[in-house]
Each structure stands twice: as C-alpha cells, then as structure tokens.
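Hypothesis: this fold can be encoded by more than one sequence.
Test: take the structure tokens below, design a sequence, compare later.
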C-alpha cells in the first residue's frame, strides 16, 4: 500500500442479458508518486476496464480505490468531476480531440472546463501561453491553428498529450497511447512521454501492447483474465508448467547408490 493511489480487491462485472460477465476478479495495485507503471496483457484481460476505474471513469462492482487515503466512494459527484478534470488526465489510443477546434483550442479545453464563465476571461491569456509552450515543446509550434483533420496521427497524439498536461495533473492515465501509430512515430511519442514523466515527476499509468514502452516503465503489471499475475506468480506458473528437468550429474543420488 502506497497511500498515493491504491486499488484494493477491485471486481467489475457486466450484466449481459441474464448473464453476469466477471471482467475484473480481485485486483490490488499500489502506485507511488512519480511512478511510471505499464499494464500489459492479452486483449480482453480487462486492462481498459481497470484503467477506467482507477481514473474515475467507471465504478467497480466491489472493492475500493483510494487516492491519498480517500476512498473514491466517499467523493461527491462534484469532487469526482473535479478530480477527473484536474488531478487526473487521460490519453487515449484514438486521441478524442474535438474535430472543429484547432490544436491550440483543443489543448486549452481542460482549463476552459475548469474555469467558470466569470473566471475564464482572466485565465484565458495564461492558458493560451501555456498551451502554446507545451505544443511548441512537442514540435507542434507550426501546427497550432490546424484542426485535427489536418494533422497526422502522431501530431494528433501530441495535441492530446499537451491537453492532458495542461492542468498539471498528478496522474496521467494512458490507454495504448501509441497503439494507432507507425513504429517511428510511436517511438517519438514514447520518447516524449518518457521525458515528460521524468521532467515533471508526474505519475503515468499506461496500458500498452508495445514491449518497447513497457520495458522503459519503472514497473510492469501483467493482467490475465481479470487478475494481476505478478512476477512470483508468473514464475510459479512457468515452473508448474515446465517439463521436469533431465537429471544431471548434480542430481545423481551419489550418496545413495542403488
Ligand atoms: N460495458 C461493457 N459491457 C459488457 N462487457 C464489457 C464492457 N466493457 C468491457 N467489457 C468486456 O470486458 C472484457 C475486458 O475488456 P477491456 O476493454 O477491459 O479489455 P482490454 O484488456 O483493454 O483489451 P484490449 O487489449 O483489446 O483493449 C472484454 O471481454 C469486454 O468485452
Ligand atoms: Mg483496452
């Protein structure tokens, strides 16, 4: 237990007609401040479902998530919304940018959502400057006024990452952030995410199928069939399923001749 972000015995079932589908079957995970955690596992293992629960986009059927010691279940709807908009942020595989807004306007959006109508004129200038500087930092300085339709996949993902960082979130949840990109662009986005995580000491929890991204994480959590299979369990499974070793000289019962 870290006291920063703790998931305890998370279970999530979906009701499909008269059938109950258990998708998460008792997950515990502790994340420390500044951690970069990669969640890997086969398709359908429940990775996105778990990420959504950690990020307050979905509720578990049972179990609890605590952020800095406060269970999510104690939060009011307003507090949940504030955490989703300020404390946490999200980067998805398909960017989820607003198509009619420019790169700059998309990046500014979280600050606009945070501010009241009265406050917005006062924070607008600063928000634009911060968005410009983030987009610049991501090599998007010459694309500020392009709409998403006029940007490549990698450029759209850069805008989505800038948007995710605008509020200085404490945790960024990424669901396959490079899943829709070619290898070279994926590598560029990985480098970017990695340097941002290191620079800002922001916590990143990323679902990924990319071994190269997972390898760079501080910790890799493997999910299989709604459960976390930790290093020890993986080893135990590998040992239990491995063929018995052929007896070598060291195994020969030297002191016990037959
Ligand atoms: N709203 C829902 N209603 C019913 N079943 C759902 C719902 N959301 C997810 N599931 C089911 O839960 C299981 C896990 O889904 P999830 O999207 O979490 O998997 P995943 O590990 O992210 O897979 P992938 O790597 O393909 O993205 C799947 O069998 C999926 O069909
Ligand atoms: Mg998924």
């Amino acid at each position: 237990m870290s006291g920063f972000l703790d998931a305890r015995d998370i279970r999530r079932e979906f009701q499909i007609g008269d059938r109950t589908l258990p998708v998460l079957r008792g997950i515990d995970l502790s994340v420390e401040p500044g951690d970069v955690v990669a969640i890997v596992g086969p398709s359908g293992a429940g990775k996105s479902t778990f990420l959504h629960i950690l990020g307050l986009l979905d509720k578990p059927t049972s179990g609890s998530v605590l952020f800095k010691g406060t269970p999510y279940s104690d939060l009011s709807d307003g507090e949940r919304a504030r955490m989703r908009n300020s404390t946490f942020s999200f980067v998805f595989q398909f960017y989820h940018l607003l198509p009619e807004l420019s790169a700059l306007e998309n990046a500014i959006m979280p600050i606009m959502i945070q501010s009241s109508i009265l406050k917005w004129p006062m924070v607008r200038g600063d928000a634009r400057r911060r968005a410009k500087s983030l987009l610049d930092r991501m090599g998007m300085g010459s694309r500020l006024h392009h709409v998403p339709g006029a940007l490549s996949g990698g450029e759209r993902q850069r805008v989505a990452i800038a948007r995710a960082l605008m509020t200085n979130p404490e945790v960024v949840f990424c669901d396959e952030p490079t899943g829709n990109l070619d290898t070279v662009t994926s590598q560029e986005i990985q480098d970017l995410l990695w340097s941002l995580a290191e620079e800002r000491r922001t916590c990143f929890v990323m679902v990924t199928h990319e071994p190269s991204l997972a390898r760079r994480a501080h910790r890799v959590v493997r999910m299989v069939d709604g459960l976390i299979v930790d290093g020890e369990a993986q080893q135990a499974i590998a040992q239990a399923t491995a063929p018995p070793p052929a007896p070598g000289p060291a195994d020969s019962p030297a002191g016990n001749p037959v």
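Residues 52 and 58 are 5 Å apart (CA to CA). Helices lie at 47-54, 77-87, 103-114, 120-137, 153-165, 183-200, 211-216, 231-241.
Hypothesis status: open.
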